[in-house]
Design brief:
The chain is mostly helical and 369 residues long. The protein has 14 helices and 2 strands; from the N terminus they run H-H-H-H-H-H-H-H-H-H-H-H-E-E-H-H.
Length: 369
């Protein structure tokens, strides 16, 4: 049989080209993505207060979130909208180093650190960031030094406030953004708490609720492990455990990965397996539509940190998650460029908040170079 001598080299060239083509197919078209981001930018620009803020009733947190989202999505630090927002956030730097007005101290300080760091190419905010990190570490330390206690290593809304997965996740992200490494004692302590918030009984979690986790919850993360003692908590399961939630599981997963925990670590593997069973962009698993846009941004960060262009669910279906997330957000964007959640939980009936979360989520859908 005649075999052209160029057949095998040509075939090899085609095969070598396939991975690159496949990688490109897993992300949205750059022009289409930019169009969606531009529409969101115009909306946010139109809703920005004269003082540079958004949603002042909750302090500087949403403004810091929005500024970070815009820079992550491609706007420069000296963009007028971003610059005004950052200037506004600096007005809330307190003597103790925290960045807050009233309540939500951990959230707003952590978000401010990330925003300042995104705009810190000239080291302009080094001193503010260092003081804010010191403040956050004080919040953590206020929950005690006994590593056997449930509260150890966690962060709540402020000093001596009951810790939860969400606040602690923002805490870890802020520290890592500031330059803290995986060996930083505060990071290690935070992972100790987060391990106790995972439905994974064993060496890392000796809490009673974890031992009562069913197959549907195993490996996922709960919002507040301390809720196990509250029989009236809506987070409790029929067996007396605590329900795993999508947004919290992605918080736990990204926190482990950001802090350098190996992907073969049993905690990471268990969280990934939970995600495989509950992969969706239609709802926040365990919470339905509640906190949906918060869920999108934790989903995007965790998937990006995991580093897989296509993620296989429990049925073996491969998901080009960047493209799927983009399509979901593009399809729900309003004509004015905003997004909003019909479920008012966690203030997501505010289009300013949802749009900031959406822009931040979209920043992770760009094709990897």
């Amino acid at each position: 049989m005649f075999r052209p001598r160029f057949a095998l080299p040509a075939l090899a060239a085609v095969l070598l080209a396939l991975p690159a083509a496949k990688a490109a197919d897993t992300a949205p078209d750059s022009k289409e993505l930019q169009q969606v981001l531009d529409q969101a930018y115009e909306y946010l620009k139109g809703k920005q207060g004269q003082d540079g803020s958004w949603m002042t009733r909750v302090g500087p947190g949403v403004t810091a979130l929005t500024a970070a989202a815009l820079v992550k999505s491609g706007k420069p630090a000296d963009d007028p909208v971003v610059a005004k927002a950052i200037e506004y956030v600096t007005k809330f730097v307190q003597k103790d180093g925290g960045v807050y007005s009233r309540g939500l101290e951990t959230y707003t300080t952590a978000l401010a650190i990330v925003a300042f760091q995104e705009c810190n190419k000239e080291k302009k905010y080094d001193a503010i960031i260092a003081a804010a990190v010191k403040y956050l570490k004080g919040v953590q330390e206020s929950n005690g030094t006994d590593d056997k206690s449930l509260e150890f290593g966690g962060a709540g809304y402020g000093t001596k406030s009951r810790p939860d997965t969400s606040n602690t996740g923002f805490f870890v992200e802020a520290l890592i953004a500031s330059g803290a490494g995986k060996d930083d004692p505060a990071v290690k302590k935070a992972l100790t708490f987060l391990s106790k918030a995972q439905n994974l009984p064993g060496e890392y979690n000796d809490q009673p609720f974890a031992k009562k986790a069913g197959d549907d919850d195993l490996g996922g993360f709960v919002y507040e492990p301390g809720a196990q003692g509250d029989e009236k908590s809506p987070k409790r399961t029929a067996a007396g455990g605590l329900r795993s939630e999508g947004g919290m599981t992605y918080v736990g997963l990204k926190s482990f990965l950001y802090a350098g925990v190996d992907k073969n670590d049993k905690r990471v593997k268990a969280a990934v397996e939970w995600v495989r069973k509950h992969y969706t962009l239609d709802e926040n698993p365990g919470m339905k539509q509640s906190g949906l846009f918060y869920y999108y941004h934790t989903f995007a960060k965790a998937m990006d940190a995991l580093g897989e262009d296509e993620f296989a669910d429990a049925k073996g279906t491969k998901h080009p998650w960047r493209k799927e997330l983009f399509e979901k957000l593009k399809g729900t964007q309003a004509k004015d460029g905003s997004w909003v959640n019909k479920d008012p939980s966690f203030m997501e009936n505010s289009p300013e908040l949802c749009t900031a979360f959406a822009v931040l989520s979209l920043s992770y859908t760009k094709a990897k170079k």
